């Protein structure tokens, strides 16, 4: 059999063409994508999705970013989304996916007329709650419990108002408490309460504080005694489930005791810095430092809200 040889000129043309194609595939910037806020599946609802784009370890800003998502193992079509630029090379979008599972994410970047495509695989899971603080979930049950705590406080305040006021003053107080009901059940308000307490409890532990069991038990018993004075509060606790309530309440008081330790540190510090100041001024200064410290602590944590 006679062997056929490819003409040298044709071979050279093919090599050059292949090299040109390869160069075209790799000529764009070598962007690195890190998922900074994971995408979750929420039925009939979009979830926040955030990435950070870097090149040679440096954040890349000023990009136009879009993504096409498709499931790796089944066909549910393609989900498209455009990202808005945040700070420090972060880009985010609200994305609604059809179900949880493995996805292929095809990112398209454009800057200064240059286009780059990058493909990564992501795992889309069902959320275990409504928010995360340093990877620990805030569950729907957590939010429900805080809603109950707010309702308990409102009912206690109503009973106290009826005992202490009458006439127009009572009407005014009750009207004010009624106006607070909606705020007490607002999801964002409830999440803020939870995040504030958890953040300061974490800070207390970072400072070496520990909530001893005896101290927590004493705080819980004090709360139990306070609730026992108000029939409306007792009724709400019974409706929730008494055993369940006090189990969760004990967990919350561990956090409260830790946060109080930070407050005490700041009061002691304020007294030391202002030895001639009265108690009111000392507590004012301590509270101001507490709020500043709280903001700093929250900013240092990774907080994700779905």
UniProtKB/TrEMBL annotation:
Signal sequence residues: 1-19
Keyword Signal: yes
UniProt keyword Calcium present: no
Record-linked PROSITE patterns: PROKAR_LIPOPROTEIN (PS51257)
Listed Pfam families: YtkA
InterPro entries: Trigger_fact/SurA_dom_sf, YtkA-like_dom
Domain YtkA-like, residue spans: 30-104
Record keywords: Signal
Name of the protein this chain belongs to: FixH family protein
